[in-house]
Each structure stands twice: as structure tokens, then as C-alpha cells.
Design a protein that fits this description.
heterodimer; A: 149 residues; alpha/beta; 2 domains; B: 310 residues; mainly beta; 1 helix; 21 strands
Chain lengths: 149, 310
């Protein structure tokens, strides 16, 4: 009897482990999907932004910013160094985008689109991981914060 | 021990987030409201004109109609005793045409091929031009005002400066201050055009290759452009501001030593604010800001410094 119980509990444990791994896989996939959607790593053409700044030769050491805000009470605060290029579009109301590059001279090229109401996007610091990043936030009352050390 | 470490990390993270949020919510938008200089006396009851010219082919034309207009033109040939045998104040030209009540124009030009023109129609307009000292060379200044209580100041020092003001409506205010900073260098260029009421604009330029244009249509818009570059250098500043609507504010500051700054601000609506700070010290900066709607705020700081070690 004890042996049967022991075998049963082992089977249950193995089943639970398998189920956990399956669910973990799903969660990871969801995360990947969300992250991909945010950072536009997928190839969905509807999410692709036109980026005028990409055509700029980064070796020229120039900072290039195109900023468009349509709506009410939107805010943008950009502090860039040389080689930082950004295209920022905010449509809606009370959206907020802040970018501060402290010391980095590496070329960066951001594409930002926020559409909706009261969305927040904050990027502090810059590194090679987020170079050529595109962030699309079409929502309301959402916040994305990226801190690069 | 591990638990404590995690808790500490969480506290630190929370503090960082709070700090970041505080920075965002505490963010202040542009403010560069102009301290307006008081305009000169406009209390003349009878038309008066005082022209004083020295040197070579100076020309002054004054035409006044209405009540209490006042005009003074002083074209002084500072180059008469120049060290290189220069002759006279050269070919200065000044023209004032005033119509209405108590308009006041004051033109003073020193040296070289200066040209100044003022046209004023309406009430109590005021225009003053004070062009270069010494070898001022090819300066040009123009102010045209129509409406009531308009005021315009223009000050030019050295070389190829050019300044234009055109104001229509009531109580508009324009001020221009240009200096190339050295003799024989390329010059500044500035234009202000304002249609509507109570618009105010200020343009300050120092050094070479500056250029600024502000066009404000609507009411109570404010534009300040401050440009600095190296006299005789190759660095350039360019700024263009268009504002349509009410109570928009644009503040542009450009400093170029090595590299070029370019800024364009376009605001349509009400209560929009834009601030651009550009520093070209080894790189070119370019910024386009377009704001449409109400109460939008944009702050752009572009630093062209090369940070060593990064």
C-alpha cells in the first residue's frame, strides 16, 4: 500500500512538473509576444514606422530630432548627446515621453509612437541593446520605463 | 541574509521609481517671457524732424503726416579719421515715413553702407534703429508697423547684419540685437513678422552665420531666439519659428563653435510651449518640433560635446 502511494505521488509530481513547464512555456511565449510587439522585433508591416532618421549617416556625428505632438497636454523632454537621433510622435492627450542620455557617445536611433491618453515612456541612459529601437504604445494609462546603466 | 538583500533591492528600486516619477511630474516647461524695454517718448504734439549727417553720400528722407510724429536721423561718418585713409561715413541711407498719431522713429547710423527704413501707420508706433560703430559696413535694418502701440528696437554692430521687422495689429513688440563681433566677417540675419495682437518677439545674435526667422500670427504669442557663434568662424546657427494661434511660447537657444545648429518650431493651437537648447561643439544638431492642439510641451536639449571615455 505504501509502495503504491509512493509510486502515485511520484507520478503526480512528474505530472505537476510537466504541467508547470508547459505553463511556463506559455507565459514566456506571451512575454515574448508582448515584448516583440512593444519593441517591434516582429515583421508586422502595420507596426513598422517610417523613420527619417535612419537614413542619416551616423558617422557625421550629428543629433537629429523630429518631434510631433498632436492633441492636448502632451509632454516631451529630450536630453541627447551627439549621434542620438529620434523620431517621436505623440497623438492623444496627456502623453509623456522623457529621454535622458547622460554620457554615451554611441549612435542611437529611436522611433517612438505613443497614441492614446496618459501614456508614459521614460528612457534613462543609452546602450547598444536599445540602439535602433522602436517603441509603440497605443493604449491608455500605460507606463514603460527603461533604465540603462 | 538573502531575504534582507532582496528587500533592500526592492526598496532601492521603489525609491528609484519614485524619483523618476517625481522627475516626470515635476517637469517644467519652457519659460522665456520677455522683459519688455520701455519705448521712447511719443508725446510730440507737432511734427518734428532732426537730421544730422556727416561724411560722404548720406541720404535721409523723412515724410510725416498726422499729429505729433517725431523723427531723428543721425548718420555719422566715423570713418572720416580712419587709420587707412578711409573717407567719410560712406553711403548711409535712412528713410522714415510716419502717418497717424505720435509715431516716433529714431535712426542713428555710423560708418559704411548702412541702410535703415521705418514705415509706421497708426497710433503711437515707435521704432528705433541704432546701427554699428566704427567699421559697421553693410548693415540693413527695416521696421514696418501698422496698428496701435507697436514698438520695435533694432541694434546692429559690425558688418553684414540684416534685420527686418514687420508688425501689424496692436501692442506687438519686437527687439533685435545683432553683432558679428569682428570686422570683415560674415554677418547675422534676423526677421520678425507678427500679425495679430500683443505678440512679442526677441532675437539676439552674436558672431557669424546666424540666421533667425519668427512668424507669429494670432495673439499673445512669444518667441525668443538667442544665437551665438564664433566671429569669423564657419559654425552656423539657423532657427525658424512659426506660431499660429494664441498664447504659444517658443524659446530657442543656439550656441555653435564647431558644427551647425538647426531648429524649427511649428506650433498651431493654444498654450503650446517649446524649448530648444542646442550646443554644437564638435557635432551638428538638428531639431524639428511640431505641436498641434492645446497645452503641449516640448523640451529638447542637444549637446554636441564629445564625452571622453564613453
Amino acid at each position: 500500500m505504501k509502495a503504491k502511494n509512493f509510486i502515485f505521488s511520484i507520478i503526480v509530481a512528474i505530472a505537476c512538473f510537466n504541467l508547470t513547464s508547459i505553463f511556463s512555456q506559455e507565459i514566456t511565449n506571451k512575454n515574448d509576444f508582448i515584448i516583440n510587439k512593444y519593441f517591434q522585433l516582429n515583421n508586422n508591416p502595420s507596426l513598422v514606422l517610417e523613420n527619417d532618421a535612419t537614413s542619416i549617416n551616423q558617422s557625421l556625428k550629428s543629433s537629429y530630432i523630429i518631434l510631433n505632438q498632436t492633441g492636448n497636454f502632451n509632454q516631451v523632454d529630450l536630453k541627447t548627446n551627439l549621434n542620438d537621433s529620434q523620431t517621436v510622435n505623440q497623438f492623444g492627450n496627456k502623453n509623456n515621453y522623457t529621454f535622458i542620455n547622460y554620457y554615451n557617445n554611441n549612435p542611437s536611433n529611436f522611433n517612438i509612437l505613443q497614441q492614446g491618453t496618459s501614456n508614459f515612456l521614460q528612457i534613462y541612459g543609452q546602450n547598444s541593446i536599445i540602439n535602433n529601437i522602436s517603441i509603440i504604445q497605443k493604449s491608455n494609462f500605460k507606463t514603460i520605463q527603461i533604465i540603462n546603466y | 541574509m538573502f531575504k534582507i538583500f532582496i528587500m533592500k533591492k526592492q526598496i532601492l528600486l521603489g525609491a528609484a521609481l519614485l524619483f523618476a516619477a517625481g522627475m516626470v511630474f515635476g517637469q517644467e516647461c519652457a519659460d522665456c517671457s520677455i522683459d519688455q524695454m520701455s519705448s521712447g517718448p511719443r508725446g510730440a504734439i507737432i511734427n518734428t524732424s532732426d537730421v544730422n549727417q556727416e561724411g560722404l553720400t548720406n541720404v535721409a528722407i523723412v515724410d510725416q503726416a498726422g499729429l505729433g510724429n517725431y523723427s531723428t536721423i543721425d548718420q555719422d561718418g566715423k570713418m572720416q579719421s580712419g587709420p587707412f585713409g578711409a573717407t567719410g561715413g560712406d553711403s548711409n541711407f535712412a528713410k522714415v515715413w510716419q502717418m497717424g498719431k505720435m509715431n516716433h522713429a529714431d535712426i542713428k547710423q555710423d560708418g559704411d553702407n548702412n541702410e535703415g527704413r521705418v514705415n509706421q501707420i497708426g497710433k503711437m508706433n515707435y521704432a528705433k534703429q541704432d546701427v554699428g560703430v566704427g567699421w559697421a559696413e553693410n548693415n540693413y535694418a527695416y521696421a514696418g508697423q501698422a496698428g496701435k502701440y507697436n514698438t520695435s528696437f533694432q541694434k546692429q554692430r559690425y558688418d553684414n547684419n540684416r534685420a527686418v521687422v514687420g508688425q501689424m495689429g496692436k501692442r506687438n513688440y519686437a527687439s533685435q540685437d545683432q553683432s558679428s563681433g569682428a570686422d570683415g566677417v560674415a554677418g547675422s540675419e534676423a526677421e520678425i513678422l507678427q500679425f495679430g495682437r500683443c505678440n512679442e518677439a526677441e532675437q539676439i545674435q552674436f558672431g557669424s552665420n546666424n540666421s533667425a526667422l519668427a512668424l507669429q500670427i494670432g495673439a499673445r504669442n512669444t518667441s525668443v531666439e538667442d544665437q551665438t557663434s564664433v566671429p569669423g568662424g564657419t559654425a552656423t546657427n539657423t532657427s525658424v519659428v512659426h506660431q499660429f494661434g494664441w498664447d504659444n511660447l517658443s524659446c530657442v537657444t543656439q550656441d555653435a563653435t564647431i558644427g551647425d545648429n538647426y531648429s524649427m518650431v511649428f506650433q498651431l493651437g493654444t498654450d503650446n510651449k517649446a524649448r530648444v537648447d542646442q550646443n554644437a561643439a564638435g557635432a551638428d544638431n538638428t531639431s524639428f518640433i511640431g505641436q498641434f492642439g492645446h497645452g503641449n510641451c516640448a523640451t529638447v536639449t542637444q549637446s554636441g560635446y564629445v564625452v571622453q571615455g564613453f
